Amino acid sequence: MSEPGAPVASEPRPPMTLELAWTGGLRFEAHSKGGVITLDGDGKAGPSPVQALGLALAGCMGADVIDILTKGRFSVEAMAVRFEGERAPADPRRFVRISLHVRVRGLVPPDRVERALQLSRERYCSVWHSLQPDIEFHTSFEVLAPETRGP
């Protein structure tokens, strides 16, 4: 018998495509199939890109944990995830230490929450695994001529 939340064999997923449009200052409007959010390098009009990374990690692991617990038929009334990230003092100021604290309310044995977190970290959380140093990373660019306006 497989673990609750164990992956089911499926067809490979197509590459993910996201679009960001600059809206001024350090702000970008980010579009995905799920909606639109504002990313703000100043963290005023929306989360900064680094804050969004923290939210993505907390959301990914939180989704894994709640999925594993509910598939295990545990009665979860509420759950919250707190992210704390310490960044290096010099550029690129990457995360050097991350702590996640999961608070679960309901009839759930602590060892099952611990196991769900372990499974998320070791096997399921694609955000965590995407932070690994062996990612193949490519960049490209194009420059377009300014738009011309008629008389």
Describe the structure.
This protein is of the alpha+beta class and 151 residues long. It has 2 domains: 16-47, N-terminal domain of TfIIb, CATH 2.20.25; 48-130, K homology (KH) domain (GMP Synthetase, Chain A, domain 3). Helix content is 28%, strand content 29%. It is built from 3 helices and 5 strands; from the N terminus they run βββαββαα. It has helices at residues 49-71, 110-124, 126-130; strands at 19-24, 27-32, 35-40, 75-87, 95-107. A 3-stranded antiparallel sheet has the order 1-2-3, with no helix packed on it. A hairpin with a 2-residue loop joins strand 1 (19-24) and strand 2 (27-32). Helix 1 (49-71) crosses helix 2 (110-124). The longest helix is centred in the middle third of the chain and has 23 residues, at 49-71. It is elongated. The termini are far apart. The mean pLDDT is 89.
Quick structural gist:
This protein is of the alpha+beta class and 151 residues long.
Helix-strand layout with pairing:
Blueprint: E1 19-24, E2 27-32, E3 35-40, H1 49-71, E4 75-87, E5 95-107, H2 110-124, H3 126-130
Antiparallel strand pairs: 1-2, 2-3, 4-5
